[in-house]
Amino acid sequence: MDRRSFVMAGAAALPLAAAALPAGATPAVGRRVRVLTTPLANAERFPGAPVPAMGSALSLHREPARRFDPAAVVVADAGGNRLGYLPPASAAALSALMDAGMPASARVAAAAPGGLRVEVFMDLTGTAPAA
Asked: Which of 24, 32, 45, 97 is least surrounded, with the fewest CB atoms within 10 Å of its CB?
């Protein structure tokens, strides 16, 4: 099993673990977990977006109305400029977690005019989703 499959399988199990906690419990208080590092997909669709600096904070937003990928997660810089999408294989599990209420964030892992790699984190400081 390659690393990406292992990480995504683990991420898919997080809602199950959170749902098993007693109501009102807080799983892994203060824990921010890196779930993947990946290049952005479809970045060429946003040519006017400035290339953010290494380590810059990025935001992740669900885009379920995207016709070809209802699990789409778009990546934007601090100014709201769209930079690209997470690859579909990565977005599938992450979007399910985000839809369940788990906060996600990202930062620039490598920045170059030809491409951008991002590190994606899940914030495990929230409470378990209501059943």
From this structure: 24
